[in-house]
Amino acid sequence: MKSRILLTSTAALLAVGVVSAQAVGPDVIVGDIVGTANYAAVGGTDAFSFGTTSCNVGTAGLLWVASTNQHPVIAQNLYRIKGGRFEQVGMSWLKHGFTALAQSLCNPCQNPGTGSILGVNCSDPYSASLNGGQGAGPRNEVNAASGYFKYPIGTNYPSGTTSSITRRLQVLSSDLDPVLNAGAVYLAEAQYVTPDDAAAGNKNNNASNRSATFATTATPGDFTGSLTGTTARQQTAVERWAQLDAAVTLTNYDIPNDGRFIVAKRSQALGDGYTRYFYAVHNLTSDRSAKAFTVNFGGSTNVRALYFNDADYHSGEPYDGTDWAPTVTGSSVSWSTADCAVNPNANAIRWSTCYSFEFESDTAPVTATITPFKPAVNALACPPQPPIPSLGGYGAQNVAYDFVPNVSAAGLLGPTTDDSSVNVGLGFNFSFWGTTYTQMVLSSNGYMAPPGQNGTSYTNVAIPTAGTPNGLIAGYWDDLNPGAGGSGQIRYQTVGVAPNRRFVAHYNGVYMYGTTQPENFQLILDEGTNAITFTYVSTTQGGSSATRGIENLGGTAGVQLAFNQAGTVVAGTSVRFAPIPPAVIPPSADLSWIGTGTTGSTLTIQVVSKPSLPLLLVVDTSAGPFVLPSNLGTLNIGLSAAALPLADGLGVFGPVDPNAKTDCICGTYTIVLSVPAGLTGLVAYSQGIVMDSTAPNGVFHITTPVAFTFN
To answer: Is residue 148's pLDDT more than 90?
Structure first.
């Protein structure tokens, strides 16, 4: 079914440099565009990049987790205003975020204590050279409406760097030449897209712009770029155009359950009965995109001087760059590309791009419409499901030296002999990897662990490990001996006032076993934030035979700082582990099982998927859970290879979609399996799907769990 967007209302603009009222939830914006990098031109095309500083102006921390799809991606664009036209002349691939700092460009930062979260009011700078790195990801793997993107990135394009302009912000040299572009104004634009910002409904303020200029160099076709003025925060370049030219009007249109288009219109009387009309159609965040733009006159008209300009994809993006074909009738003029069902990679107006349309007519337009490229998701075929929270993990970050005084004098005495431990009360509830504790086992060997764990282990190993002890808080796990003559003591104390109390264990000059070499450090647990801090006062061994890090109770996940690495412990430093808030992995498909369920028969598994999904199905013989990689949470998967030879070690079947992924349909896909003998009485649970062919290490999405009993 086709749908059209009727453009009727004019949108108001945000003032340059103004940050809007604080949004609920995480809300990332571009607080500043600063610094440029210039790269050598190749074959009439030049390349640049701009630095960006992001700000979280929301009320909750913004996830910034490397090696997952729970971090921002950064797009860069360049626009030119010339002769009454606004045109996109350049675009980049995407920088993927990896670590968030805690600076205060926009507002005083509430430091979350981890690089995996951009804290409330905090800012994070990325230099022009970082944003211009050639390991960038393609735009086609990103859904700007939901913030979802495929991870690992870039599986749809050729690897390797081919030239100085590959994957960077590319601009034709002819679009920058001052001889050909006298009086032109250039606007650099940057936009952030990230899942939790989109889920909070804050995706439409993530672009900002700043004026740019370009100068010639001694090399023909090669230019240097620089930024001027100040950054117009939370404002796209096309909105800035309306501020620079009073003849420009704007219309916003938000597609339900999708994203936003911004349409600029400019008219100029020509004095011969005709008026020149110019439209710029900017797709800010719509995943459905646009395949046609139509201007209706409401009656007979004459049209002449048609003009069209689109964005130039490059570096292996799969999109077809064929110009839109114009169609003129007695009462309308339109431009269009191919239908999604005919060519999924047709030249649609996709997110963070702007297409320009111009004509002259002797009658004023009455309405303008946009026709979406992708159809709306069929609510009956793909019923919406509530999001399922996943278990978060921990991020580690170096912090300012955090030493708690007087514990060695006023604290209670901890373990006093070699390879010993004591149970200690924390004085408050402390959540560690999803479980709340009021006590811990305090070991003489430099670690804490939950009650019931071995507190006497003197042989440290790398973590995580299934071997005991588990649930480790290993500040300096080594063979320490507080019972040696002349050795220091281990004391512990709860300090502070609720709800901000701290439990501190101080190993004050405790000898390494068989030596007189002391180690002096503190293990600190914080009430409320549930953060863990290791503070190193002084060291002799420097960590050369120690394990430092934390591990969950099952020994299946952990964050290791170092294992037997000399020089990794530095006196006068602290490192903090902060919980990463649970991410939300949206459901992506409904499942149904069809078959008799008897051994030796065939079993059909149907997957009803939303657009772009799925590729592989995962099932399990138990209720789970299974811990997903990279802090993505838990998922029940895995008919074992022994139970079902068609599955691999994690029970992944596939491919579900024999025609590979398509963005154009919401479809039903099936897998037909032969049920092997020996499964009598077995119950299998289908619990999730994998988003790419690199399973079982691919990207997981939750599905509606379905159980099937084999008779």
So the answer is: no
Are 684 and 617 spatial neighbours (Cβ–Cβ below 8 Å)?
Answer: no
Q: Are the CB atoms for 279 and 296 separated by under 8 Å? A: no
Residue 389 falls inside a structural domain: no
Q: Per mean pLDDT, which range of 44-48, 68-72, 685-689 is the poorest?
A: 685-689
The sign of the dihedral angle between the CA atoms of 650, 655, 657, 660 is positive
Q: What integer pLDDT is reported at residue 484 of this predicted model?
A: 96
> Residue 380: inside a domain, yes or no?
no
* Residue 656 region by backbone torsions, left for phi larger than 0, else alpha for psi between -120 and 50, else beta: alpha
Query: Which contiguous run of DSSP H or E holds residue 41?
Result: strand 28-42
Contacts for 489 with CB less than 8 Å, ≥ 6 apart: 408, 413, 414, 416, 482, 508, 509, 510
Same domain, 319 and 462: no
Q: Which residues share a beta bridge with 394?
A: 579
More confident residue, 396 or 510: 510
Angle at 1 between CA 585 and CA 307, to 5 degrees: 95
Residues 588-604 have pLDDT tens digits of 556 666 666 665 555 56
- Evaluate whether residue 294 is within a structural domain: yes
Angle made by CA atoms 361, 367, 368, in degrees to the nearest 5 = 85
CATH no. for residue 604? 2.60.40
Q: Of 579, 597, 630, which marks where a domain is finished?
A: 579
202 and 271 belong to one structural domain: yes
Residue 224 lies inside a defined structural domain of this protein: yes
Res. 581 pLDDT band, cuts 50 70 90: low
Radius of gyration (Cα) for the chain, nearest Å?
30
Residues 181 and 299 in one domain: yes
Residue 407, domain extent: 394-579
**DSSP letter for each residue of 174-221:** GGT-TTTSTT-EEEEEEEEE-HHHHHTT-GGG-EEEEEEEEEE-SSTT
Lowest mean pLDDT, pick from 242-251, 457-466, 624-633, 683-692: 624-633
Q: Encoding tokens for residue 272? A: 């011969």
Smallest CA-to-CA distance from 583 within 199, 149, 206 is with: 199
Q: Which of 293, 286, 292, 257 is nearest to 350 (CA)?
A: 286
Question: What's the structural domain count of the chain?
Answer: 3
Whether residues 147 and 273 share a domain: the answer is yes
